Amino acid sequence: MAEIEELREQLDEVDRKIADLFEQRMQIGRELGACKLQNGIKMIDRQRERDKLADMAGRASTEFNKKGIRELFEQMMSMNRKVHYQQMVEAGALGRLPFRFIACRRCADRFPGDGRGLQPGGDAVLLWRELQ
């Protein structure tokens, strides 16, 4: 059983590092978004995303891990796009959000139908689906 606990401790340490790196990645993404907005550069680059997914998946040692890495990076990129969309809205650079509102709790009176009436950091729980 000592071996199980030792392995769990190792996983916990790796998980902490992953969480810290995710926070770092999101902060850099915010800074990149602000820089793009300031310089009038296109915020979302789907070709770069495809290239990055291929590169990251290519680092995997097995097909199973390749799929996992691809899914992980797709999710992180999706989170980053949402931050960029928020930055564009806050800067007045985006009229209609490129994702569709699915559900909202505790905000029906503030919700105009497409999500633009909701304030970032509010108490609403939102579900979004990106339009492809």
Write the layout of secondary structure elements.
Blueprint lengths: L1 H38 L6 H12 L5 H28 L8 E7 L19 E6 L2
Antiparallel strand pairs: 1-2
Explain how this protein is built.
The protein is built from three helices and two strands, in the order αααββ. With 132 residues, the protein is mainly α. The protein has a two-stranded antiparallel sheet. It is elongated, with a radius of gyration of 18 Å. The model is unreliable at 103-129 (pLDDT under 50).
User: In total, how many beta strands?
Assistant: 2
Work out the helix count. 3
Describe the sheet with the most strands: 2 strands, antiparallel
Mean pLDDT over the full residue set = 81
Shape: elongated
Radius of gyration from the alpha-carbon trace, in angstroms? 18 Å
The strands making up the biggest β-sheet line up spatially as: 1-2
Fraction in beta strands: 5-15%
What structural keywords apply?
mainly alpha, two-stranded antiparallel ribbon, 59% helix, elongated
Summarize the structure.
The chain has 132 residues and is mostly helical.
